[in-house]
Amino acid sequence: MEKTISNGSAHLWTSQTGDHGSWTILCNGGPGCCDYLEPAARLIDDRSRVIRWEQRGCGRSTNDGDFHLATAIADLECIRANYGIERWFVGGHSWGPDLALAYALTHPERTQGIIGLAGGVVHKDQAWRDAYREHKHEEPLPEFRYPYNLDVNRVMNGEWLAFCRQSDLLRRIADLDVPALFIAGGRDIRPWWPIAQLAGLLPRGRFELLPEAGHLLYQDAPAAVQALIRDFLSASG
């Protein structure tokens, strides 16, 4: 079921699958990607009502140039309110868990849990960047229905760097009393240690490594990803 939600003058594309259970919203990677997470949503939409959406400037959502982190968080809140959801699981893939974390830190009372697939990074050292750049050309990409928005990527990456440099960020994360599950692939070209580090910093964080999976771990190891998220939803519901 597709639904367009308005936040001010912006129109946000959303889609829901599943008709019972808790609520989950999945955020795309990039930043700057259109929706590509239907395969991930299908793994759990028999246990949760799953919403997918496209950030401003991406896919079918309004391209108004307002690509800021605070705006994306406000758009998530608008989606939650429009669907009439009290509390939900907020997650995503790649850069999506970063946005989910920022949302949870802003609205912990609305966050039932955080789900991170191959993402959730607040610190990258030079070795991380070197490993990523060396193997970037080898990475398989999802099938994108709409073009990648480089402006969204540029602005939001700058916003995320500023967010990660906040002097009290690690303290806020360590105080965030929200269940969190982060799953990484051992064959991902992105080193997984920052994801494990973030999970370890969260008081209710959990990290799982799937050694044979790559960045698209929901396609590489669907049964394992499905089992882990289903267990997490049940335990945190």
Salient structural properties:
alpha/beta, Rossmann fold, 9 helices, 237 residues, 38% helix, eight-stranded mixed sheet
Mean pLDDT reading: 96
CATH top level class name = Alpha Beta
The tally of beta strands, per DSSP, is: 8
What spatial form do the alpha-carbon principal axes imply?
A: globular
Write down the CATH topology: Rossmann fold
Annotation field: number of helices: 9
Structural class: alpha/beta
Tell me the Rg in angstroms: 16 Å
Strand content: 15-25%
Walk me through the structure.
It contains nine helices and eight strands. The protein is α/β, with parallel strands linked by helices and 237 residues long. The protein has a single domain (2-236), classed as Alpha/Beta hydrolase fold, catalytic domain (Rossmann fold, 3-Layer(aba) Sandwich), CATH 3.40.50. Helix 2 crosses helix 3. The chain is globular and about 40 Å long. The two termini are 24 Å apart. The mean pLDDT is 96.
In short, what is this structure?
This protein has 9 helices and 8 strands.
